[in-house]
């Protein structure tokens, strides 16, 4: 296979009206255009205030020169792959409609071979129209509010309303690629793992397209490149004696061990044998949930981590390798072993890096803000979204839980488990424990609470009682392990006040300390994790209660630490020493050898 990035600068045109360009037409000359980097959100790149809050259609276009082999070899399949386009996308190649896609957080692709192999041209013009409008029929949902008072608003004026607390960034957020395969090719690989008395079991299923006549060879290589197991055919089991298991960061002296599953498909053609090849990182691990514990490879695992957002200055929600690696270095510095992809599926590259770094992931659907009305709308549409997300989760060892975030019920949870029975399912709730519709059917209960922030303002002294009561009520009712999936307080960096007051760094730190006292007591019993809200400050819609975004991050939006970051760093490394090492090994030495933490906690 060959890859050709179609990124860098695209032409961008914003228009309230949709429509079709048609063959031979271009966005150039259709109106003012703006050079637009891909991947990125379009909102913060320019200086146009109207573009930042724009709702409607935007048009992207770029012309790409293709290698000669791609356009002349009819045995080559040419594919256009779009990492994500928020929210609804229509795609043309050389003015010909090729694909449409709904949903702003998952990849999609189209076979464009016939369009680029049908004439003498060695280039292809890619045009993508994207509409970011959110309605009760979208995930996440929203509403369009039309302002009809002409004494206050121009004719036709409307605003986009949402029921979530992050900015609705839009555009081509993830890489756009052109790639090739043979006409008979590997389409998909599903891997599940288990362990039997030290022997790793890797069950695989391979899906091929293009022909029914082919051979498949499968090999599993260790990190030294040695073949440890091999097989043939579309389905099978590889057995790995004395397997190296995939362990989370700080849970083992050699975490995140990944094998390489190599699949080679060979088919016979008139020109001779042709092969397609794919190498897939595979971690061998088990996940199990009991009444009081979350077990990875049979050992208790305690989530100490963060909630995140795909959000940064200028690029908005656009994928950026430098930013991603910085974030992972901060996670390791912090001693975090997990995060939740609030409030949507993240880029595949993020999940793949989690596997490499040993970070456990709670992967969340984009259903934030779904109420009763939206639940009725989406009752018949949820299958497709979960199917696509299952496709992303088939081979990721760090992905230990699938998380739903609508008003959930028994049917939806059962359907999710049927799509991916290998992982526990949870959803995030802040509702009344007695009336909750989903808690009886999930594997782990995730509870959000913001004591002494959204009520009892400034009264930190009430947190221990209220938090202890929360945990006791949920556990007494459902007898399932609990994760404190959100907690925190806003802090404007550089604001200091002692005694602590709201929005100061001291208040954020003191509030977390009050939570930690109760968490330390309850984690001895049935609390299996804590995820602070949030990893970093992030942008929201403008509102009187939001000072240039949500300030609950323990890092600023520019990834600089607030006082709370140092508090959590000390706590998380202490948790790693207390919970992941056998009792005899606990003591003066911190697990992260490259960090100068040698004191006894």
Largest sheet features: 8 strands, parallel, barrel
Q: Which word captures the global form?
A: globular
Fraction of helical residues: 10-25%
pLDDT averaged residue by residue: 89
Number of strands: 30
Distance between the termini: 52 Å
Rg:
25 Å
Q: DSSP strand (E) fraction?
A: 25-35%
Number of helices: 11
Biggest sheet strand line-up: 23-24-25-26-27-28-29-30
* Unreliable sequence segments: 388-394, 582-601
Structural class: alpha/beta
Q: What is the secondary structure topology, with strand pairs?
A:
Elements: E1 2-5, E2 8-15, E3 34-38, H1 49-52, E4 57-65, H2 68-72, E5 76-82, E6 88-93, E7 96-102, E8 108-111, H3 113-116, E9 123-131, E10 142-146, E11 158-162, E12 176-182, E13 185-196, E14 199-209, E15 215-221, E16 227-232, E17 235-240, E18 259-269, E19 272-282, E20 287-289, E21 294-296, E22 299-300, E23 303-307, H4 321-334, E24 338-340, H5 348-357, E25 360-364, H6 372-378, H7 382-392, E26 399-404, H8 410-419, E27 425-429, E28 444-448, H9 463-478, E29 482-486, H10 505-522, E30 527-532, H11 563-580
Parallel strand pairs: 23-24, 23-30, 24-25, 25-26, 26-27, 27-28, 28-29, 29-30
Antiparallel strand pairs: 1-12, 2-3, 2-4, 4-9, 5-8, 5-12, 6-7, 6-9, 10-11, 13-14, 14-17, 15-16, 15-18, 18-19, 20-21, 21-22
Helix pairs in contact: 7-8, 9-10
What would you say this structure looks like, in words?
There is one protein chain. This protein is an alpha/beta fold and about 600 residues long. Helix content is about 20%, strand content about 30%. The strands form seven sheets. An eight-stranded parallel β-barrel has the order 23-24-25-26-27-28-29-30. A six-stranded antiparallel β-sheet has the order 3-2-4-9-6-7, with no helix packed on it. Strands 1-12-5-8 form a four-stranded antiparallel β-sheet. Strand 6 and strand 7 form a beta hairpin. Helix 7 packs parallel to helix 8 and helix 9 runs parallel beside helix 10. The longest helix has 18 residues. The protein is globular and about 80 Å long. The N and C termini lie far apart (about 50 Å). The C terminus is likely disordered. Keywords: Glycosidase, Hydrolase, Lysosome. Its EC number is 3.2.1.31. It is found in: Lysosome. Homotetramer. Pfam families: Glyco_hydro_2, Glyco_hydro_2_C, Glyco_hydro_2_N.
